[in-house]
Design goal:
543 residues; mainly beta; Immunoglobulin-like; five-stranded mixed beta sheet; four-stranded antiparallel beta sheet
Amino acid sequence: MRTKLLLFAIFNVMIFSFFSCSDNVEANFTYAPTTPKCGQKITFTNITTGDKDWEVKNWTWTFGDGSKSTSKSPTYIYKEPGIYTVKLMVDSNKHFVRSLNITVVDSIPTIYKNVDSVKYYQNAKFSLLIYNPKNLTITYEWTFSSNAVGNLTNGKSTANEVEVYFNKKNVNEYISLHLKMGTELDTIIKDTVFVNDVKSKSLLMTQMNGKILRQRIIENGKEDYSEINILSGTHSFNMYAMSNQLYIFDAGSDVKYKTNWLTDTKGDGNIRVVNLANNSSTEIIHNRGLSSHFGFFNAFVDNTNIYWTDFSEFIYKIAKNSTIGAFDWKGSINNQVNVPYYFIKSNRLGYFNHGMELNQPSGGFAFYDQAYFWAKGGTGRGIYRFYPNDILVTDVNSGTAVPALGAILSNYAIRAFVIDKINQRIYFSATAPADKIGLWVSNMSGTNVQLIDNAPMDDESKYITGIVVDNESNKLYWAYRSPETVGANAPAGTWQSYYNANPTHRTGIKRASLATQYKPTGAIEYFALGVASYGIALDEVKK
């Protein structure tokens, strides 16, 4: 008997608890727009209150036309006008139900766009929202301004849906649609959209003795470059942009090899870092009053360090937050290894007696996959690869072993190179021999070398020094100057006739799609036609 009484008590407690909890539930919802039209999306917002753990498991909507949904806050489109009773039930026993009558009116023809905000150079689709229960024939004539780019003829289209982008920002665009539906409707519908600017990454480009140019990289097109208040320097062959910091390596006015470089005092180059948020500049190191040979001809920047090469002998290394001041010249080439930022001397690698030569120009430096890559031109041409423990303490003698990684591309006098880490490719410019002048790509092993750009050389000490890989947009960028920029005569006839026959040999910033394992680089196009630049850098901070 006691057991029966106990079970009865427990049962009463459970029933009491259930109804106590359920009494807190109040089914309710809102919807927008409040006067919807046929074909227009209605958003139902669930504002039910109560026991959260229980209520979220049970949503049943009926829309009055036979359709249902179990979403918490669904959207729905009515195809015909009328008055519909919408019900929300929040439990399976039909205890908690909210009903509202919705009046759906006949559709007023409306231009519909598939995006909430129309953005500069980004695609938007425009279509017609109309109620057509009789399935009458509809004809369209869209009219857009000259700023719209898409499948248009003189700004017009007769398609039922038009996809365009706008190449002018911060403006109102006026769209017109001449609509005919059978014999029942002949009208013109107009709409206005505002084209919002978007933040994009940029390519930064030097100008000799001028200011740096910025041109944003836009997905669907190109906008004009603009000048920013940062001095380029004289020969800024390299630039690196990292997290709003721009590192500029200016080799100075005199970039030729000289036999008296040990006593020369014509240096006027430096390394600067610029804060791209406010354009403030800090000089890291300079060689004013010293030899121009100890300049800043090639460079590499990683997350921790700055590396740079002089004309031919040395590579130096400093922490990114360093400020050194005047370059430390120890008075002799042998003593220079004692400066605190000395890193490598060419004759302290096992390659010295196996190709790498003194007094031959450096062609760039990189650190990748725990290995160093040092490119050279002249007699000791190619890219020399080595690990940190391959760097010797003393000068190389004839019996020193060559680093195990070996040299690659020994048939090319390399002026500059960059590594595409994603696609495992090396892009490099070559200044010699004569049949190898141009921009090339190879595998990481130096094999499968393919020519990208055979544009003629303006100056062996300059040529193509700025090369940038942008994996996000799958593009390669490089800075090229036609020999016309240094006063050379056209190879045949006039420069205009030469360019007519060779349209990709004009001065400017060029680009092409990146090479992959399965395909070569794409066709060359101009990103910034007419810009005579040396160093270029990818600013990935969107502005």
